């Protein structure tokens, strides 16, 4: 039987004008009914955001205390949040528990991070300072693949900077966000944080609302461009993380077995549904067959199943639409004469399961290489020399992450310097991402920064203060002479 959930609006529970069902990708069955927010409720959330207590904007200690309390309650209720994640998008429960822990770490990190006043000039005549002020109401729109960690990466710095936040989660994975809202509702002043859910026009209503001064969005390039256009109409600030098609370059000195085991593990985390997962594997032509054999052996050891089963290594694809997209990419490879080598089929029925798969005989011009697969598919592409590898890696409009693998660190770093990406890793990929690190994209992978001090600055406006010290001294002297 489906469980009913409520939204968070102006510090209170809120029903919607209707409900919609959320399906468990492991079974295909509706397990939750969540509210459908109305345009009127969006107006109410924005009105409440504009009326938040002035202390939230000005009292950093108040905000720090609240954010630490949010982190603490997340840890106390970690299993509730993790089970919601697993049921709504399929990842193994152990992975979901790590996601919740990572989300709590964001709130603790930003609770303790300050943006001190920067003194530009102080020479006895003039004191010139740069200060940071809250930007205003923030619309945070999050995707379905990391519903808690990606929420925390937006909400924690936005709140820490003194802003109110209206969170709109994906309709595929809203349950964990609604659960989070239930947990923190009484820890934050009314109007400071709202969670609104919907499957139709909600994203547009939130993005285009005149009260919003900042939109932070993670999702597809197509929708990200729509968000940017909508925000531009009244000059809202935007942070856009629009996905990646990360290249991995193996140099000719890699240990094939170690490389394959590590890359296969990273590529299949969350069933490949991570924006900074390895997605295009470039290998020397002379080592191609050896590395492919090692990758195939690695993926065949991955157990696919329900994320609530403790023995599951990889869960299902998160929704039917994404499952069909991934299956279509692989069919195109087969039809074009490429080689498709699949790992273990799941030992369960129903749901959106897909076996981990290695594809070869592919290259530029095929969608499995040109587009972000966002699934458990590992394309392996030959290159002739390092210049060819770099050219192929950069031959895309994506530019989020990249990695180079070699025993020769100097050589690997020299190649990384030539890759067009916001992040480059050496001998790993998306390792140890934490709140102190930045995540940003180049080209069509996004605008702005998440993480670290720079991620906090994204939710502020610069304010320059100019103090004429000489004039103050002159006024004081005049007053004393009188």
TrEMBL record:
Known InterPro entries for this protein? Ald_DH/histidinol_DH, Ald_DH_C, Ald_DH_CS_CYS, Ald_DH_CS_GLU, Ald_DH_N, Aldehyde_DH_dom, LUC3-like
Spell out the molecular function terms from Gene Ontology: oxidoreductase activity, acting on the aldehyde or oxo group of donors, NAD or NADP as acceptor
Q: Does the keyword Ribosomal protein apply?
A: no
Please list the residue ranges annotated as the Aldehyde dehydrogenase domain: 16-461
Which residues does UniProt mark as catalytic? 241
Q: Does the keyword Oxidoreductase apply?
A: yes
- Keywords for this entry? Oxidoreductase
Belongs to which family?
Belongs to the aldehyde dehydrogenase family.
Protein name as catalogued: Aldehyde dehydrogenase
Organism name: Acrocarpospora macrocephala
What's the source species' lineage? Bacteria, Bacillati, Actinomycetota, Actinomycetes, Streptosporangiales
């Amino acid at each position: 039987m489906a469980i009913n959930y409520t939204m968070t609006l102006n510090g209170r529970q809120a029903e919607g004008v209707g409900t919609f069902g959320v399906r468990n990708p492991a079974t295909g069955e509706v397990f939750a009914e969540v509210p459908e927010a109305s345009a009127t409720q969006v107006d109410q959330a924005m009105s409440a955001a504009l009326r938040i207590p002035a202390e939230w904007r000005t009292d950093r200690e108040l905000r720090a205390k609240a954010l630490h309390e949010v982190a603490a309650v997340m840890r106390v209720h970690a299993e509730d949040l993790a089970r919601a994640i697993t049921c709504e998008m399929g990842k193994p429960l152990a992975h979901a528990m790590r996601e919740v822990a990572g989300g709590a770490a964001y709130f603790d990190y930003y609770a303790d991070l300050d943006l001190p006043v920067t003194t530009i000039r102080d020479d006895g005549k003039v004191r010139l300072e740069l200060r940071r002020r809250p930007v205003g109401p923030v619309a945070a729109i999050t995707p379905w693949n990391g519903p808690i960690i990606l929420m925390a990466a937006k909400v924690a710095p936005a709140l820490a900077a003194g802003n109110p936040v209206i969170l709109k989660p994906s309709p595929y994975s809203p349950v964990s966000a609604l659960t989070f809202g239930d947990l923190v509702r009484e820890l934050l002043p009314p109007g400071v944080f709202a969670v609104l859910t919907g499957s139709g026009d909600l994203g547009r209503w939130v993005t285009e609302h005149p009260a919003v001064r900042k939109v932070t969005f993670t999702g597809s390039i197509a929708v990200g461009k729509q968000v940017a256009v909508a925000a531009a109409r009244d000059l809202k600030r935007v942070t856009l993380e629009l996905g990646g098609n990360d290249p991995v370059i193996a140099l000719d000195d890699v240990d094939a077995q170690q490389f394959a085991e590590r890359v296969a593990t990273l590529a299949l985390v969350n069933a490949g549904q991570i924006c900074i997962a390895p997605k295009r594997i470039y290998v020397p032509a002379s080592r191609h067959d050896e590395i492919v054999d090692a990758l195939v052996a690695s993926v065949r050891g991955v157990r696919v199943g329900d994320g609530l089963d403790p023995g599951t290594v990889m869960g299902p694809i998160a929704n039917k639409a994404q499952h069909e997209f991934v299956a279509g990419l692989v069919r195109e490879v087969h039809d074009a004469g490429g080689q498709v080598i699949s790992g273990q089929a799941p030992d369960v029925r129903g749901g959106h399961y897909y076996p981990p798969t290695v594809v070869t005989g592919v290259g530029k011009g095929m969608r499995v290489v040109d587009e972000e697969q966002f699934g458990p598919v590992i394309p392996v592409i030959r290159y002739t020399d390092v210049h060819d590898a770099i050219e192929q890696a950069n031959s895309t409009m994506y530019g989020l992450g990249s990695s180079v693998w070699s025993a020769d660190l100097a050589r690997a770093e020299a190649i990384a310097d030539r890759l067009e990406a916001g992040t480059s890793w050496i001998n790993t990929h998306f390792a140890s991402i934490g709140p102190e690190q930045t995540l940003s994209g180049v080209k069509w992978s996004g605008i702005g920064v998440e993480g670290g001090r720079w991620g906090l600055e994204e939710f502020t406006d610069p304010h320059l203060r100019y103090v004429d010290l000489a004039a103050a001294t002159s006024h004081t002297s005049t007053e004393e002479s009188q």
